């Protein structure tokens, strides 16, 4: 499919311009694209308002149905029943699939979804297809997301009676930069300009900052809050220090676990040995799995309010499930998921160097916040008797995004409701490959953004005239454990013994999280680079990340290697 | 070497063709690092403390407040892309000053040392006041420079301990126990006005800080010039008292916050009025000290 004209995302340089030129700047809208539900909110001049679709829904199911030629998304589409979405014609869970390769465990677990996720396990993007008139019609997560965004955009434009261009999107904290570019790509396909991509818990932090500064006059005192956000696809934790409307993110942690994992493990629990059924994608099988999925989902929802639930379902293929499941059983089945949640919280507290006594408020939001085990788990780790009240669990993130949209669009409010700021932190470390196969971080995790750091490297061989800068993102010590973001070559290093030339690598992240890597060669005693400096916006790799690094290694071996010289903090 | 980073504000005033508004072009990122080679932050002529507008003695809380205030002004969310460069510096300054070890290193690199004892109160500072020869001892020497008549007797008897300040015309302690005890004893006894005192080690930093001449505020053509407390011991005592009261207040404030639920009913207006009043009282009593801490410190060391 020919992709629509691409509006070049302009570095938000335009945001500043619009501010000065027009007294009524366009307010960016906030969009929370959830794995299962989506919502849109906008600052209406005095407060944040959630937009409703024609069926008066604030939360819209995130899916796109392909029928004949015209796809339709969950914004306007009428879903007669949950089973419709599970017929194979609809693509959902885009957020779990976008920007992932087919070796990714999250993609592997998505193979039990009713639509087709075909993986070859070689580190390229998976094939995703919807069943249209008995034909598997291929598509991409970006395309699906773009179709969805177009509908959201149309809906917002009708209600706000103005064209929409700028948006603030919430994203999971664990998204790699490559995934962020995929989201930006989908937005560009929908002719939307991404003003900011906000990790979900930081959007919640901004809302918290507003609520705190509204309720106490004395804004001098600092409040530390732990935000736990778990939806269908992702679980994120953030620790924020808030004072005077400024929310400073001290630490972020996230992982691709969520309600979807609870659902899948529960389905496997209810129907053991169902692996072939789940992944077969025969027409009848899809239907059976759909029935099982809906029943399991309902059971999990019921377990949030009751201690046990009776599951009585006929899968239509001769299998009947008749079982009473109680909460303990559910919690036991999903022990791994809950353990992971706990470890994220502990890691975040550790990274932020915050003791549980210092935490004033614990905020639990997202779809999974209704699960009693999640609530009790967060409370017990934070040693709190109760959770922060005053936020709607499903709306907090989108409201925060709308606030950020208003703030970053340059709006101000006479009552000070927009006197807000989030100081974001980098969720993952950024660095390059050096000292063999090691990952040398240049910007560590949880550095305040915008950030700029540099590090000096040197050549690994005598008379080495070229060097490869391979940029990675992640926490692993070895490069293979991290996401490859891109690579480029520095040339024209004057022939000299190894260790003499200084290769300075600067990483620069601006407030909209755009990463630039600059690299240049200095000879001892000089402050000016010998050749023009290379400035590369990352990520540059498109697809099949792992391959590129391997291919580079095959082509060049260690001949273009770098080693570290000194470490600046 | 002083590398001038182009003043960001001056650029933004002129309309730059959009095509040239590329991040790298506008701001010479590459050059910024040069500051690390030599004098820190020569690019802007400001050190981290000046950048954040805080005194060298500021505690983390004050630094954090100042940082947030400035972020609200310069953060790219508020100021647009022009704020990028400045925010980077703020982030760097904040990171360094908030970490005790980095801050110490930085202090040393810019030649400014916090008056130890003001905050933690254990290690006497070396470069601001006197340094120590050998291990710390409970007693230290202190010259009341107000009383000193500039006879140079002490310097004559114990030249490694005392030093004569020609600019101010008085003697002061350079190195504690720089000479042997006998020499020191002779020099203390030799003082015709008995202005050399044995003081507790803990008192020393405050005394040495307070005895430094501080510029006084001028009103029109009146006033101005330099002055120091008439009785430095009294001044030190009251300073310590204030400091202690402050700590107690901070603690009370903490306790109050914790037990807010049980506190008596008070309307927000009343609470605000009370807080404003108490803050004002505090501020008045301290305005002089703050002034000292903020400005003259620089004037003196920076010359």
UniProtKB/TrEMBL annotation, chain A:
Gene Ontology molecular function: ATP binding; ATP-dependent protein folding chaperone
Protein name as catalogued: Heat shock 70 kDa protein 8
Record's keyword terms, sorted: ATP-binding, Nucleotide-binding
Segments of this protein annotated with the region Disordered: 1-27
One family name in Pfam for this protein: HSP70
Entry-linked InterPro entries: ATPase_NBD, Heat_shock_70_CS, HSP70_peptide-bd_sf, Hsp_70_fam
Family listed: Belongs to the heat shock protein 70 family.
SUPFAM superfamilies: Actin-like ATPase domain (SSF53067), Heat shock protein 70kD (HSP70), peptide-binding domain (SSF100920)
Highest taxon, organism lineage: Eukaryota
TrEMBL record, chain B:
InterPro entries: DnaJ_domain, J_dom_sf
Gene3D superfamilies linked: 3.30.70.20, DnaJ domain
Chain segments carrying region Disordered: 243-279
Superkingdom of origin: Eukaryota
Pfam families, per database record: DnaJ (PF00226), Fer4_13 (PF13370)
Basic and acidic residues bias: start-end ranges: 245-256
Domain J: 47-110
SUPFAM superfamilies, sorted: 4Fe-4S ferredoxins, Chaperone J-domain
Classification via PANTHER family: CHAPERONE PROTEIN DNAJ C76, CHLOROPLASTIC, OS06G0474800 PROTEIN
Protein name: J domain-containing protein
């Amino acid at each position: 499919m020919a992709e629509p004209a691409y509006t070049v995302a302009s570095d938000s340089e335009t945001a500043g311009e619009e501010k000065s030129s027009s007294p009524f700047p366009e307010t960016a809208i906030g969009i929370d694209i959830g794995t299962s539900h989506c919502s849109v909110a906008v600052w209406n001049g005095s407060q944040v308002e959630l937009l409703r679709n024609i069926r008066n829904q604030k939360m819209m199911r995130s899916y796109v149905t392909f029928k004949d030629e015209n796809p339709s998304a969950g914004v306007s589409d009428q879903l007669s029943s949950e089973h419709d979405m599970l017929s194979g014609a609809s693509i959902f869970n885009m957020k779990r699939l976008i920007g992932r390769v087919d070796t990714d465990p999250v993609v592997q677990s998505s193979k039990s979804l009713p639509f087709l996720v075909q993986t070859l396990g070689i580190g390229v993007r998976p094939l995703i297809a919807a069943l249209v008139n008995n034909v598997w019609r291929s598509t991409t997560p970006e395309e699906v997301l773009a179709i969805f965004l177009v509908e959201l955009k149309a809906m917002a434009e009708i209600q706000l009676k103005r064209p929409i261009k700028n948006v603030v999107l919430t994203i999971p904290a664990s998204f790699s930069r490559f995934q962020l570019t995929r989201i930006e790509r989908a937005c560009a396909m929908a002719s939307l300009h991404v003003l900011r991509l906000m990790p979900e818990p930081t959007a919640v932090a901004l809302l918290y900052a507003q609520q705190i500064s509204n309720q106490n006059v004395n804004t001098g005192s600092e409040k530390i809050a732990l935000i736990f956000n778990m939806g269908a696809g992702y679980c994120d934790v953030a620790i924020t220090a808030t004072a005077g409307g400024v929310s400073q993110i001290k630490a972020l942690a996230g992982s691709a676990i969520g309600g979807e994992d609870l659902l899948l493990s529960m389905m496997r629990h209810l129907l053991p040995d169902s692996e072939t059924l789940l992944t077969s994608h025969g027409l009848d099988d899809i239907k059976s799995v759909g029935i099982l999925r809906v029943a399991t989902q309902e059971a999990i929802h019921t377990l949030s309010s009751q201690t046990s639930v009776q599951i009585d379902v006929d899968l239509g293929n001769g299998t009947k499930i008749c079982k009473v499941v109680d909460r303990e059983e559910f919690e036991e089945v999903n022990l791994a998921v809950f353990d992971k949640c706990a470890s994220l919280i502990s890691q975040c507290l550790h990274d932020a160097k915050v003791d549980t006594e210092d935490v004033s408020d614990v905020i639990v939001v997202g779809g999974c916040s209704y699960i009693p085990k999640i609530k009790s788990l967060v409370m017990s780790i934070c040693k709190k008797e109760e959770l922060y009240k005053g936020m709607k669990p499903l709306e907090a993130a989108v409201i925060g995004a709308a606030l950020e949209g208003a703030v970053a669009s340059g709006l101000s409010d006479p009552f000070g409701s927009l006197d807000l700021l989030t100081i974001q932190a980098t969720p993952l470390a950024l660095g390059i490959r050096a000292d063999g196969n090691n990952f040398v971080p240049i910007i560590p995790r949880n550095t305040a953004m915008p950030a700029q750091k540099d590090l000096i490297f040197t050549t690994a061989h005598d008379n080495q005239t070229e060097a490869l800068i391979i940029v990675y993102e992640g926490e692993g010590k070895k490069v293979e454990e991290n996401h490859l973001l891109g690579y480029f070559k520095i040339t024209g290093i004057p022939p000299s013994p190894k260790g003499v030339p200084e290769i300075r690598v600067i990483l620069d992240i601006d407030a909209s999280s755009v990463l630039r890597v600059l690299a240049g060669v200095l000879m001892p005693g000089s402050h000016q680079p010998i050749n023009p400096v290379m400035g590369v916006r990352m990520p540059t790799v498109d697809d099949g990340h792992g391959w590129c690094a391997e291919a580079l290694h095959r082509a060049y071996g260690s001949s273009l290697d770098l080693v570290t010289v000194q470490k600046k903090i | 070497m002083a590398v001038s980073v182009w003043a960001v504000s001056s650029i933004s005033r002129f309309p730059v063709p959009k095509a040239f508004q590329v991040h790298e072009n506008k701001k010479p990122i590459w050059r910024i690092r040069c500051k690390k080679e030599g004098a820190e932050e020569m690019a802007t002529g400001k050190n981290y403390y000046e950048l954040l507008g805080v005194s060298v003695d500021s505690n983390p809380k004050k630094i954090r407040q100042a940082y947030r205030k400035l972020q609200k002004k310069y953060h790219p969310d508020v100021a647009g892309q022009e704020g990028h460069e400045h925010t980077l510096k703020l982030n760097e300054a904040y990171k360094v000053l908030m970490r005790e070890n980095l801050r110490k290193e930085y202090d040393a690199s810019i030649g400014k040392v916090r008056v130890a004892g003001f905050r933690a109160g254990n290690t006497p500072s070396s470069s601001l006041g006197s340094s120590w020869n050998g291990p710390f001892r409970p007693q230290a020497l202190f010259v009341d420079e107000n009383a000193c008549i500039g006879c140079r007797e002490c310097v004559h008897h114990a030249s490694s301990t005392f030093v004569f300040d020609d600019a101010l015309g008085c003697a002061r302690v350079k190195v504690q126990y720089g000479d042997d005890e006998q020499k020191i004893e002779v020099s203390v006894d030799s003082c015709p006005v008995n202005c050399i005192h044995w003081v507790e080690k803990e008192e020393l930093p405050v005394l040495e800080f307070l005895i430094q001449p501080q510029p006084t505020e001028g009103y029109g053509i009146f006033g101005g010039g330099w002055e120091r407390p008439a009785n430095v011991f009294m001044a030190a005592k009251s300073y310590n008292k204030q400091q202690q009261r402050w700590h107690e207040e901070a603690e009370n404030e903490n306790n109050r916050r914790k037990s807010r639920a049980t506190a008596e009913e008070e309307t927000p207006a009343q609470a605000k009025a009370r807080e404003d009043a108490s803050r004002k009282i505090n501020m008045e009593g301290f305005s002089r000290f703050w002034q000292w801490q903020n400005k003259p410190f620089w004037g003196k060391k920076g010359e």
